[in-house]
Amino acid sequence: MSMFEKQGGQKYLDMELRTSPHYSRGVDVPQIMRNVVYALLPAAAMSVYTFGLSALALFLVTTVSAVLTEFILGRLSGHDNTVGDFSAVITGLLLGMTLPPGFPLWMAAAGGAISIAMGKFMFGGLGFNVFNPALLGRAFLQAAFPVAITTWDAPFAPGRFIEMINTSLALPFMTPPPHAATGATPLAALKFDGQVTPSLELLLGTVSGSAGETSALLLALGGLYLAARKMLDWRIPAAMLGTVVVLSGILHTVNPQYPSPVFMLFSGGLMLGAVFMATDMVTSPVTGRGVLMFGLLTGVLTVVIRIWGGLPEGVMYAIILGNAATPLINSHTQPRKYGTVKPVKQKKQQQGGA
User: How many domains is the chain built from?
Assistant: First the structure.
């Protein structure tokens, strides 16, 4: 504030009035998005080490497709260029991590474009989207290319750093050549063949699966990094992962044929989804009780779909359904305004006074 004099010697107070919050951390959207990219890079690097050039090409194609789509749509719509906020980079990278390493690159490019166009711009851009854009793009690919998206590649293939998986460079709308070496994901092996993958392999990610299943340990460490920098609401992954552990533990105790809590926790895309997708600031609740309800809902849905659903994995649909429920959760978990009285209590007070 500063004082200045007007005519006649009268003093006025020069002040700037703003709405709350009045205190800012000084951290903007690009900074947060850059740190999310930093947190994802170790797991992405592990995926490249596990699957080779195909995984690297997959990440590059989905990311470039997402960024390019954002740039083109921004120019066509007359909006400011938002490529520099790194949100499209995260969308592309996350999409790539949900796909098989040998996924045809032209399909991956289509998925990156759909993630931005339908998952983000259709709702009005960053901050207005209802669903996580990467998951919406993945859901589109699941519906459009069900065979390609459920064809998995064996890890640590010989020559993975000098040649790509033969399906990566498949021509558009042509039947891709058969895989030279394939492998079932741990979830699929358990659901359809009854085979249990060792916990250490799940933790380190030395298994067949999507590019984002490469290391639950590195994904968890990335989440801890973001939580330590206060760029992630730790309550969401804690509630989601905790619900999966408790519910699967109860089911495993009742019937040992159900997967153990350790297997459920480290297998599939649960760690990636809980840490980097369910915590999306735009599509997750903003209230304290709301984030716990959101984590509980997505955790229960994940277990239900994995065990009783037709698909071996349920994280994607669990988070998308949780995104759809977020407005309802927000509206029913708003804190009571200071000084207000609940309607029931107010009515009793009025009756007592009468």
Answer: 1
